[in-house]
């Protein structure tokens, strides 16, 4: 979202009211905006460049406000203040008008056919008799820059030029010439340059250098002249100095050149509507004439108003409110969408300042904003759905846990890499890899999407080769492969890769990891229906030390000892074994069934690779008993008690489905009515487990009570009377119910214990500026960093060279609370002592 910085006092003056920070924050929220930060120019410069540079900066309070990306009318103080005043009913939305010049002769912009090769479109308008102050002038320039970065896509789609009309004379000509034929004095320069010289001049300009590639390679450059041959601008790079505007400018000629005509019209409308209020006749814009290469003449700006019709019922249904058409019309009018009613129908007028309204849903959204999101009554959804983890992700998570248990450390690497990483370093040609290339890579390290996980793991080892041996790493992540059958010509493939780095190759370790992985996946080591390996040739691996992995006759990956050349290419010095395989084929058609429980560890489970379920399991027949710990499920009272119990719970016991849920489910003779919403939600969820009920965890307590045995109708003889029996039998059912209730409460209490907290051990290298830095003070500053979930450990000073020592300090962090980026940012804040912070080691605890 774009962020607009406005001076607080100027904004309050425009609004005609002074707000506290909390009140203005609330007003922004009501209007659909967010007050992101309250700061000042001095504070910003101090934070970015240091206190010394900020000494002369202004202390004026600035509001940084986040606005929606498509609300171009809120990108300046004028539009923001106008919108808030209309929203608070302090001002009627203005009516923007296009007027003819008093003299009767419109300003004319003629487009020649030569522009077709670079920027074929242009629009223009005039702000007549405008009055600038310093604040208005600054806002005018800032709005151009905001539009350039937003809808103009960094001037690639539209470039805005503003000129003092009194210093130039029409008609104006928009044409294109060879760079050597263009010569003029650019903005804020003292001499003339050719276009070729300007390109060289601005290559070092921090602001303009980003726009040079737009036309740099074109045979001709766009240029705008007036009738006397004076250059107005060379879009999209720079304006001419002759026609620059100032505080004394009274008449502004605005031209927008573009590759997208629709965007150009929107930009022109926004520019003139925002600042036409400062004209002698407020909210009027003088029209200009644009002559196209084909001879057509078009009048700009369009300032088009259009009307849309929709029903109040549509808005009420979509937002979840119940308002009359008149009330909704008032809400929309507060959002600058003038509305009138005809029965239940609404006629909404869309002004030229709201190009974001392109559908009835956009109007509905504005009605919801004006109504207030906090005022919409919360309701329970009428449709219940059962969420389920994506099978591929569930398989990935299960494998990660068990591979870590096997002694391997997980690594996460970038999805992009260099061509050299996946080709030359692995002994392959780039054409063989089928890699997806980045069209405009910003760095040589990120040129293609990776086709294998192996380079990332080897680079991780290279960065940590000083760690104790052996190094055992694995990664389960996506690679990108070309696929002409896909809409985008490529697809993701989930891969598993592991490496073993030690003084000996350790092929048996990698082979053992493969066997363990197949055991977890329930694939037998047999030909045909299981898996096997056979010798293969691959330039990445040492000759005779490479094997291909086959599952059910299909190749899924390779393992072996890496070739010495590959090892040296990654700056490693000792042998390394590696494994990489595709895990998607192991999902098959039964993924939903097999992945809803933990992968079994034992060997004895029979598994057929990629087999279909022959027949579905059927629900167990309902038990005879409908009596549970919550009451009789055949009565409304029992169902109500269970519904209340499930109001803040998902399951009968703990945090996952179990046999307790299945037992209570079977005790309910028929689907519960809609009035018991929580019970209905639970019932539909447990019903979805019908194919895997037998694999649900055991119940911790008995939730369904047995039926009392029927009373005998036969007369008992005197011999059958137990004169010495006790009355404990009569109380056994009640005692069992109390005991089971207590067990259930204990299990629920035990399930609320805090889960294990993921922690990491981090070793940081903190480097000082020079050998004169007080290292004791530096360490004191580092240890002063205090965060929830951070525990500092031991430290030592390590020589770097030339008398300079770095601080090496360890810490343990809770992964969910503290990240390395957060630590580095906090430590580097001590800029007087700290030059940089690097992560020397990172291990899971």
TrEMBL record:
SMART domains to which the protein is assigned, alphabetical: B3_4, B5, EF-1_beta_acid, EF1_GNE
Protein's cellular compartments: Cytoplasm
Keyword Protein biosynthesis applies: yes
Domain B5: 303-378
Role description: Catalytic subunit of the guanine nucleotide exchange factor (GEF) (eEF1B subcomplex) of the eukaryotic elongation factor 1 complex (eEF1). Stimulates the exchange of GDP for GTP on elongation factor 1A (eEF1A), probably by displacing GDP from the nucleotide binding pocket in eEF1A.
NCBIfam families in the cross-refs: pheT_arch (TIGR00471)
Organism listed in the record: Nothobranchius kuhntae
UniProt cofactor(s): Mg(2+)
Keyword Cytoplasm: yes
Sections of the chain in a coiled coil: none
Biological process (GO), any one: phenylalanyl-tRNA aminoacylation
GO molecular function, one term: ATP binding
Keywords carried by this UniProt record: Aminoacyl-tRNA synthetase, ATP-binding, Cytoplasm, Elongation factor, Ligase, Magnesium, Metal-binding, Nucleotide-binding, Protein biosynthesis
Subunit structure: EF-1 is composed of 4 subunits: alpha, beta (alpha subunit of the eEF1B subcomplex), delta (beta subunit of the eEF1B subcomplex), and gamma (gamma subunit of the eEF1B subcomplex). Interacts with elongation factor EEF1A1.
Recorded family membership: Belongs to the EF-1-beta/EF-1-delta family. Belongs to the phenylalanyl-tRNA synthetase beta subunit family. Type 2 subfamily.
Cellular component terms per the entry's GO annotation: phenylalanine-tRNA ligase complex
Transmembrane parts of this sequence: none
Superkingdom of origin organism: Eukaryota
PANTHER family, A to Z: PHENYLALANINE--TRNA LIGASE BETA SUBUNIT (PTHR10947:SF0), PHENYLALANYL-TRNA SYNTHETASE BETA CHAIN AND LEUCINE-RICH REPEAT-CONTAINING PROTEIN 47 (PTHR10947)
Primary location: cytoplasm
Name of the gene: FARSB
Gene3D superfamilies: 1.20.1050.130, 3.30.56.10, 3.30.70.60, Bira Bifunctional Protein, Domain 2 (3.30.930.10), Phenylalanyl-trna Synthetase, Chain B, domain 3 (3.50.40.10)
Catalytic activity, EC: 6.1.1.20
Protein name: Elongation factor 1-beta
